[in-house]
Amino acid sequence: MKQSKVLQINNQYIQTELQKRRRNADENRQKTRFMGIILVLAIFLFVLPTYNLVESYDTLKEREEQLVQLEDRYKELSRQEKIESSLVTKLKDEEYAAKYIRAKLQYSKEGEFIYNIPGLLPK
User: Fold this and answer.
1) CA dihedral defined by 13, 19, 24, 25, rounded to 10 degrees?
2) Is residue 107 part of a domain?
3) Is 92 domain-assigned?
4) Which of 41, 67, 79, 84 is 20 to 30 A from 97, alpha carbon to alpha carbon?
5) Does the keyword Coiled coil apply (predicted)?
6) Domain limits at 44?
7) Is residue 96 part of a domain?
8) How far apart are CA 25 and CA 3, in angstroms?
9) Total number of domains in the chain
C-alpha cells in the first residue's frame, strides 16, 4: 500500500479553524432551513387567498348565468301575462266570449255543425 506523502499539521490553529468552519457550516444550514420554512409559509399564505379568490370568481360566474336565466324567464312570464291579460279583457266582451267558447270547447247551437280549421281559432 502506498503511503501518502502529504503531512497534515494538527496544531491549535488548525483545530480552531476547523471548528470555525463547522460552526459556519452549521449556521449556514440553520439559515437555509429557516429560509426554506419562511418560503414554504409565504407560498402557503399566497395559495390560500388565491384559492378563495378563484372559488369566489366561479361563484360569481354561476350567479351571473343564473341572473341571465332568471331575466329570460321573467321576460317569458311577462309576455305570457300580457297575452293572458289581453284574453281576459277580450273575454269581457260577450260576443267574443261566445265565439271563444264555441271554438275552443266546441259548443254549438241547436242544428249547427262545427268544422275546426287550425289557425282560425280566436286567440
Assistant:
1) 130
2) no
3) no
4) 79
5) yes
6) 13-82
7) no
8) 31
9) 1
